[in-house]
Amino acid sequence: MKKSVVILGLCALILSGYKIKSGEKDYAEFRPHMRAVYASLMTIFPLTLNKSSFMSKDNTKTIQDNLNLIAEHSTMINQLASKDEKGHAYMSFQLERNARQAARKYREGYGDQAHFFVEEVFDTCLSCHTSRSSASDSEFTMDFAKNVNMDALGTFGKAKFLSLSRQFDQAMDEYERIFTNESMSSEELLHFDPLVDYLVLAVRVKNENDRVIKTFSTLMKKPMPQMIKHDLEVWVEALNKVKKRNKKQSDLEYAKILIKEGKTVNEYPRDRSGLVYYIYASKYLKDHLKKDKVSTQDKAETYFQLGLCELAIGEPLLAAESGMYLEEAIRLAPKSSFARQAFGLYEEFLMYGYTGSSGTKLPAEEKAKLAELKKMVF
Ligand code: HEC
Fold it and tell me: Which residue has the least CA distance to atom 3 on ligand 1?
């Protein structure tokens, strides 16, 4: 198995040609590490599906060896990505932390905790891969993905697995198959939020505007709760509007227009009506950061707007990312027009994150950081 994985990896490495837009960053240096972590994850994946195989003596060596490899490559991914824009830096830091914890807990015999961190590793791969646009799906994972027993993964598991594997097109097919399947319950739609996952994938990663309009228009004809129907209607309207973009603006300028629009259509704090605008805005902002020549002021504002977007989109891991965006916006341009608002949101974000049943308990280091940022801004 291992040998064929290595050979397959080498062939793909040699055969694959990647096209990138000029003026944008290439992630070629990520690729060998990505392939290695993926190969290790695929090796242990079937063994993680139930607790007894995960802790069985027969599998311990395979699992431990691969968890160690994932941890080592994650450290290298973190080293590479920490020089990149802040979103990537943050995600890769999370990846390394989760991978190290998984390997350590497994070595110490804490099966449940190790399993928890393995799942966190999967989630981090998925979040990072769906956090920005991708020009083409991975050729490297195509054959791997075919060999996985997807039936064990539950209704949306297959779609998520395909996204994690950067088989984005197939993942969209899978969501669409589920959405048009008569037997899907409205509880599933409400509980798992697959419509939002699908939107993020189709809009932010693949920029497949027409395809989403088609899917949602079909879906609207089916019987479903009024709330979801309303969301679908405003989303289709927004998707049609975004299609008419005036290309004269920069990505940052256009993103700001979209965010304003999103704010206008949202009627109450947890309203999801503006979601399409925020997801599109986040896509353009991240595209903007990928460019080689961005001034410090522009970068700061882009981070600030990204913070607003991720707070509004509200995906758990990405919402955590938003605090870091706001912090970076402040650090880059503490005297800018938006720095005070960024600080206010950052403070609120921290307080919210550390509030429990016994009140707000900010750790000393967070308190110190807050004071430092405040001093910069005011
Ligand atoms: C910090 C963000 C980030 C994290 C975290 C991350 N990836 Fe990636 N991954 C990328 C990017 C960016 C690319 C695209 C590289 C390119 O341009 O081909 C990529 C590409 C890949 C590829 C395709 C490689 C190829 O040659 O086609 C695989 C497979 C992959 N990642 C697996 C994983 C797995 C498994 C994890 C979790 C253990 C993971 N990645 C975590 C950002 C990330």
Answer: 128
